């Protein structure tokens, strides 16, 4: 990530998290990082995408209740934790596509870090939506509509890392990504030239990984248009506002700076 586009803040308490959540609303995008050495999922994503971010999601606020959720797809197939889905009102394991209370998600993570006395490598990046124009209301309404589509809920996360690695692979030049020379988008997505064997129906969404869900949500609004399929977008790709803004119709945009909250437990 271009360090000139980052602002840093520190989260030291549960009150700090409450204050952070208060700044977020529908359409804001969050990216998170985990310790590369302690999470295999984080290791794969950070290694192949050459980025510190390992997960992404979008903030969704229910206007009737004011409750803020994180709209995400997670790879937690082995978890025994269950929650009530606010859309389907059924109880299910927290794996695949889900809406989860944003404040609970952040506070639970912070409490875990504090209990382990280890905040190493734990960061939360926020791409704030520029809300200074009238187009935002239509944009966010369509995001909310997509997040409330019952058929999307519990859509499974891909069972293997193959789709993630394929989304990174843009032919042999992709190997330079591992060396830090350039990212997926900087080689202009060579997959568009026929280097990608996977065929994907953009509307079927049989499986969804986290960045794919974010881009599919953006595309649903009709305000976001890209020739690059949603499965080709990695967390690294969406962590830079410039990558999103060049595909958003004016006057919509994300703030050019990413705010990074460092969890200090």
Question: How would you explain this protein's 3D organization?
Answer:
By secondary structure, this protein is of the alpha+beta class. The protein has one domain (3-257). The chain contains nine helices and nine strands. The strands form two sheets. It has a seven-stranded mixed beta sheet with strand order 1-9-8-2-3-4-7, sandwiched between helices. Strands 5-6 form a two-stranded antiparallel ribbon. A hairpin with a 6-residue loop joins strand 5 and strand 6 (91-93). Helix 1 runs antiparallel to helix 3. The longest helix is centred in the middle third of the chain and has 15 residues, at 102-116. The model is unreliable at 190-201 (pLDDT under 50).
Quick tags:
globular, single chain, 29% helix, 265 residues, 7-stranded mixed sheet, alpha+beta
Please describe the topology of this protein.
Blueprint: E1 6-11, H1 14-22, E2 29-33, H2 40-49, E3 55-61, E4 68-74, E5 82-84, E6 91-93, E7 96-101, H3 102-116, E8 123-127, H4 136-147, H5 162-168, H6 175-178, H7 210-220, H8 235-238, H9 241-245, E9 258-263
Parallel strand pairs: 1-9
Antiparallel strand pairs: 2-3, 2-8, 3-4, 4-7, 5-6, 8-9
């Amino acid at each position: 990530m271009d360090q000139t586009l980052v602002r840093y803040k520190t989260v030291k308490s549960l009150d700090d998290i409450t204050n952070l959540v208060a700044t977020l609303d529908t359409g804001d995008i969050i990216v998170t990082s985990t310790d590369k050495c302690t999470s295999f999922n984080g290791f794969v994503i950070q290694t192949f995408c050459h980025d510190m971010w390992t997960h992404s999601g979008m903030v969704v606020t229910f206007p009737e209740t004011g409750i803020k959720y994180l709209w995400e797809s997670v790879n937690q197939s082995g978890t025994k934790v269950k929650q009530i889905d606010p859309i389907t009102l059924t109880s299910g394991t927290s794996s695949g596509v889900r809406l989860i209370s944003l404040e609970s998600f952040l506070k639970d993570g912070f409490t875990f870090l504090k209990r382990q006395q280890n905040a190493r490598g734990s960061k939360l990046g926020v791409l704030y939506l520029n809300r200074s124009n009238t187009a935002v209301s239509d944009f966010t309404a369509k995001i909310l509509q997509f997040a409330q589509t019952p058929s999307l809920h519990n859509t499974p996360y891909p069972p293997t890392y193959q789709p993630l690695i394929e989304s990174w692979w843009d032919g042999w030049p992709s190997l330079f990504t591992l060396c830090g020379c350039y990212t997926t988008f900087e080689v202009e997505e060579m997959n568009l030239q026929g280097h990608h064997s996977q065929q994907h129906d953009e509307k079927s969404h049989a499986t969804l990984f986290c960045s794919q869900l974010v881009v599919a949500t953006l595309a649903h609004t009709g305000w976001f248009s890209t020739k690059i399929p949603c499965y080709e977008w990695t967390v690294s790709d969406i962590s830079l506002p410039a990558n999103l803004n060049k595909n958003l119709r004016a006057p919509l945009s994300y703030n050019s700076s990413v705010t990074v909250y460092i969890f200090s437990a």
